[in-house]
Amino acid sequence: MHISDTLMPKVKEELTRMEQQGVISKVDQPTEWCAPMVVVPKNTGRVRICTDLTELNKSVLREKHPLPSVENTLGQLAGAKVFSKLDANAGFWQIPLSKDSSLLTTFITPFGRYCYNRLCFGISSAPEHFQKRMSRILEGLEGVLCQMDDVLIWGTTQEEHDERLRRALSRLQEAGVTLNDKCEFSKSKIKFLGQIIEASGVSPDPEKVKAITGMQEPTNVSEVRRFLGMANHLGKFLPHLAGKTRPLRDLLRKSNMWNWGSQQQKAFESIRADLTTPPGLALYNPNAETLVSADSSSYGMGAVLLQKQENGGWTPVAYASRALSETEQRYAQIEKEALALTWACERFQEFLIGKCFHMETDHKPLVPLLGSKRLDELPPRIQRLRMRLMRFSFTISHVAGKNIATADVLSRAPVGGNDSDLLEEDINLYVDAVISSLPATESRLQQIKTHQENDVMVQQLKKCCVEGWPDKFSADRSLQPYLQYSGDLSVHSGLLLYGSRIVIPASLKKDILSKLHEGHLGITKCRARAKQSVWWPGLSKELTEMIEKCDVCACERTNLKETLIPTEFPTRPWSTVGADLFQFGSQHYLIVVDYHSRYFEVAKLTSTTSEGVIEHFKSVFARHGIPDEVRMDNGPQFSSEHFRKFVRCWNFKHVTSSPHFPQSNGEAERAVRTVKNLLKKSGDPYLALMAYRSAPLANGYSPAELLMGRRIRTTVPMISSQLNPEGADMKRLREIEQKYRQKLQQDYNSRHRAHDLSPLQPGDHVWVKGLQERGTVVSAANTPRSYVIDTPKGVLRRNRYHLSPTPVAPETPALSPPEDTRGSMAQEEHELEQETSVSERRFPVRARAPPAYLKDYVCSNNRN
């Protein structure tokens, strides 16, 4: 929940108060769990701090602490005349947590992380742990019964009662348990666990059967049918039920006229009495399976608490019903159903606190809202109701409407007035706080409200929220996209919300999309911004499409590294070589490296023209022979007509890497790094080169051995026999190289979390990084992961890394990207050793400017 500026000081004040009381403390260390905080405003002007521990509860092991049978306990009250009831003050907070348990309750706030030092509401195991502790404190005391934080004390005389009370108070004081002002002392009649206890005996509390005893007789056939449904549902084990209901069933015959006579009245009153006295009404058993069934009509709520008996049947323990207030009648139906279940649990709380029970509803979308969804995903009213249910431990499921006949009947015939003032006020305070916390100014909210009022679709949705949703077969076609979200839509203060997010009308969608993409954040962050505040069906898809069409984002977008493609190990020395130019200091060099042996030749260049480079190539080839294939980048020295002629005359294959992607000539790139390190660290570069060429590689052979078939003599002493020519074991060498390449590939892919980019097809639209232009794929190129691209600046060849798939350019182009923006040159290697690119320039960059005689002309450069 976003916290408004007006609530922030109150939240800080409450956190400080709780910290000073020792209830919570700050957390600085890393913790395994961290829950969200929820702020609930009070009508006193203060706030209540709640914690959503839903995820933690999934891993909490529950304690199963048995409770004494109420029936057996009440049997001990024979002769009792004086009664007292004690109520523990903030009971849970009186139980300290261990350090490890405390850290599990860590929650996050705008002021840092805190954890509870004492047992808090929301932990699923808290009630039974509290019950176990209270039972142990009062264990062995006569005339004392403990049910959670309620303690009943009785005596046959005033003196006996007082002595038992003193012992109980002494035990509680020793344990540090404090009591609140709800305690009752020395009463001749007292209410406990739904029973009225007095000297004359135990009788059911009239309040728990008032919903039945106060029910008025039916006035039409539909009401008779519902009443009979309830009677059959609850009275399966009542004697002679079929005979008693016959006068009522006669009214259901189509051939009979409606006539409510004395026989029907007598049958109605008899059934009503049976349902409110044993065996139709059971005594509460704390160890029996318990079920809460609740339902809401358009004007009332009904609920029944049932328990499973030894014969396998379910028998009611208590009933409740009440009318809805005018405000509550305007709730969405799903909110009314959630209200009914919450109200029922709070009405029956003396039976439910500390017990795991089950709830059932005939409103299927409500099950995940009260069961599995996160708190921040819920509509505001249901958020607050869910928080009120946090102190209960329950499961929830959907049942057909015919199976909750009792709750349905009670909701349609609410007894008495509306006692909802406190609950309604609490919900309204929370909803107002949620609305005020939305990241929008008052004027902006008013603007959205105005647009919602003028939007036909939004008005139709508001109507469905209040009056109910049609089924998917009869719903209008325009409503179909919203049906699956019906449980999350609600109306608050005239504003249509999805959870706690504003539903944006069609007229504002374009503006909101633009606002979400301010700063040109990526898809994930823009979706996260939307998730905080706004919603409409298909928002994520529209947001994704808009960002993919954004030129500014396209030119800055960096593809992730692709998986490594190992170069095939050449079968013989000097068959495949790589070449590159590099600069060290003020001097330029040519390097030629053998892919088989890693043996390289380095030549200092006096000229970086094609002619100068070719002369050194001839010198290297004269020593080692002409290779089958030479790999190099797209430097101008290697793409000139003079160099192409040299290739034809000397008869070798010339392979170039993709433009702006020198990493694909990885062996040469690595050799450049090696040479630069040698030149930096060594005073004598020739000794350094000799040391490199004679040092064994990972395969056990030195570059000189693999190229020349012999070891070379160095400054390190060695016997002459070691210098005799000895060829490498090629089979063993290939196996070693294969394993080496596989391991290097695995390590690279794992370290860089590399994955293959999706291949492109002819006709695909792409954004060309570096060129800052859109283009169309013509075909795949003759090198791995490269494509021929048609762009406004001509037909180019580019590696897949530089190409971002994009939809067709929008009719109204986005802002042009800055002219000096460059796409990142992250690696997408095709070689074994392409881990990083060369940081220094390999050759000087010539400053380009048009000749003076062209100053009066508009010129364009179409070269690639």
UniProtKB/TrEMBL annotation:
Belongs to the beta type-B retroviral polymerase family. HERV class-II K(HML-2) pol subfamily. Residues 21-197 form the Reverse transcriptase domain. This is Gypsy retrotransposon integrase-like protein 1. GO terms for molecular function: nucleic acid binding; RNA-DNA hybrid ribonuclease activity. Residues 569-733 form the Integrase catalytic domain. Pfam families: Integrase_H2C2 (PF17921), RT_RNaseH_2 (PF17919), rve (PF00665), RVT_1 (PF00078). One of its GO terms (biological process) is DNA integration. InterPro entries: DNA/RNA_pol_sf, Integrase_cat-core, Integrase_H2C2, Retrovirus_Pol_polyprotein, Rev_trsase/Diguanyl_cyclase, RNaseH-like_sf, RNaseH_sf, RT_dom. It comes from Oryzias latipes (Japanese rice fish). Its EC number is 3.1.26.4. Residues 803-846 are annotated as: Disordered. Signal peptide: none annotated. The lineage of its organism: Eukaryota, Metazoa, Chordata, Craniata, Vertebrata.
